[in-house]
């Protein structure tokens, strides 16, 4: 007997034994995982598949879109629109929501994604990924059949029913939570199957490793500057220990390292764009990653509040992100309180 657990078996056990997920949600997650396999194939082909470089367009945030950003977006939409489990999708790469076309049955779930996170790393062969989040459309009145709208997506991260990411690195790994801890599945390329390689992932509570884009230091607010200053002073400074720094510039890769060995990741508000609360997107990046990190025993905060409690007002809303090892995140939150 093969002792290995496939993604399908893991999900069926979550459904049957733990009663965590209804069959439609299981199907949805399997379809997303299948789409990630297709994206992985394109990522692996690189120059041979003519998938590198810019697409010559910009997204709603004014960021240049890479060919792979658009390919990954298409793959996720095509894979998910016909299954009958979704009402609509929203993506970092699309201006508005994508309602499931009328020719297909409508489901009750909403799928949100950053199809290709870490776009700046695509062309330099560094790890990138797909991040996704699943919400349930809130509809207490079964007789209400209003068309799905952007407002349906504006739910706090605490409402998520599934979240995950797929990292395309030396290995292709799917990391998933349905609210019962965090599981990791490695893609076995020969058979094209996801194999459970770690369950009950736990982030160490303490760390001496931080991840932040240091080139933005002069733009940060006082609490973040103070925190990093203290870390840089090493064992002679107020923290009394030496810190290491890592920055991949793909959130999936930085979070994956933190899930594997601890650490803290910061993308704080900065003065360059004073009216935006940060660079990263609440619905496609901060919420799914925040929930995964919490489910692995870590913490995720804006500096002022728990990320999962932020009430979104717009689809592409941005947020300041501090996540990782619990005690270190709590220390950074205290740095913010000291300056409040
Ligand atoms: P993207 O979704 O367009 O790739 O942008 C998000 C990425 C994150 O993965 C990463 O943490 C950050 O942007 C990197 O930003 P910087 O260019 O400041 O290093
Ligand atoms: Mg991103």
TrEMBL record:
Enzyme class: hydrolase
Domain Fructose-1-6-bisphosphatase class 1 C-terminal residue range list: 203-336
Pathway: Carbohydrate biosynthesis; Calvin cycle
Main location, first listed in the record: cytoplasm
Gene Ontology biological process terms, A to Z: fructose 1,6-bisphosphate metabolic process; fructose 6-phosphate metabolic process; fructose metabolic process; gluconeogenesis; sucrose biosynthetic process
Residues annotated for Mg(2+) 2 binding in this entry: 114, 117, 285
Binding positions for substrate per the UniProt entry: 117-120, 213, 279
Cofactor: Mg(2+)
Residue intervals of the Fructose-1-6-bisphosphatase class I N-terminal domain: 6-198
Annotated InterPro entries: FBPase_C_dom, FBPase_class-1, FBPase_N, FBPtase, Fructose_bisphosphatase_AS
Subcellular location, record wording: Cytoplasm
Annotated HAMAP family: FBPase_class1
Residues annotated for Mg(2+) 1 binding in this entry: 92, 114, 116
GO cellular component: cytosol
Reactions it catalyzes: beta-D-fructose 1,6-bisphosphate + H2O = beta-D-fructose 6-phosphate + phosphate
A GO MF label: fructose 1,6-bisphosphate 1-phosphatase activity
Organism of provenance: Serpentinimonas raichei
Full protein name: Fructose-1,6-bisphosphatase class 1
PROSITE patterns: FBPASE
Annotated cofactor note: Binds 2 magnesium ions per subunit.
Assembly and oligomerization: Homotetramer.
Pfam annotation, one family: FBPase
Family: Belongs to the FBPase class 1 family.
EC numbers on record: 3.1.3.11
Entry keyword set: Carbohydrate metabolism, Cytoplasm, Hydrolase, Magnesium, Metal-binding
């Amino acid at each position: 007997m093969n002792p290995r657990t496939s993604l399908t078996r893991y999900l069926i056990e979550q459904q049957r034994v733990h009663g965590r997920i209804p069959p439609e949600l299981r199907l949805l997650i399997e379809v997303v995982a299948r789409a990630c396999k297709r994206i992985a194939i394109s990522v692996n082909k690189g120059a041979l598949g003519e998938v590198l470089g810019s697409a010559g367009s910009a997204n709603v945030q004014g960021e240049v879109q890479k060919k792979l950003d658009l390919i990954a977006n298409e793959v996720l939409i095509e894979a998910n629109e016909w299954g009958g489990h979704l009402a609509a999708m929203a993506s970092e790469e699309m201006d508005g929501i994508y309602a499931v076309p009328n020719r297909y049955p409508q489901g009750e779930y909403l799928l949100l994604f950053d199809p290709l996170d870490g776009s700046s790393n695509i062309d330099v062969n560094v790890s990138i990924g797909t991040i996704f989040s699943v919400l349930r459309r809130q509809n207490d009145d079964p007789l209400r059949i209003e068309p799905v709208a952007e407002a349906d997506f504006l739910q706090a991260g605490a409402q998520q029913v599934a979240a995950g990411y797929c990292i395309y690195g030396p290995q292709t790994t799917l990391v998933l939570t349905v609210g019962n801890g965090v599981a990791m599945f490695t893609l076995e390329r020969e058979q094209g199957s996801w194999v459970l390689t770690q369950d009950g992932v736990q982030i160490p509570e303490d760390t001496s490793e931080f991840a932040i884009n240091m080139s933005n230091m002069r733009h940060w607010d006082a609490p973040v500057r103070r925190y990093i200053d203290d870390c840089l002073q090493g064992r002679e400074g107020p923290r009394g220990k030496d810190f290491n720094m890592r920055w991949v510039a793909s959130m999936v890769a930085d979070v994956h390292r933190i899930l594997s060995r601890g650490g803290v990741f910061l993308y704080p508000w900065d003065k360059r764009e004073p009216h935006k609360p940060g660079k990263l997107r609440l619905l496609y990046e901060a919420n799914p990653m925040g929930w995964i990190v919490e489910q692995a025993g870590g913490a995720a905060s804006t500096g002022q509040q728990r990320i999962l409690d932020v009430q979104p007002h717009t689809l592409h809303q941005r947020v300041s992100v501090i996540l990782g090892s619990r005690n270190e995140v709590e220390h950074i939150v205290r740095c913010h309180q000291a300056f409040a």
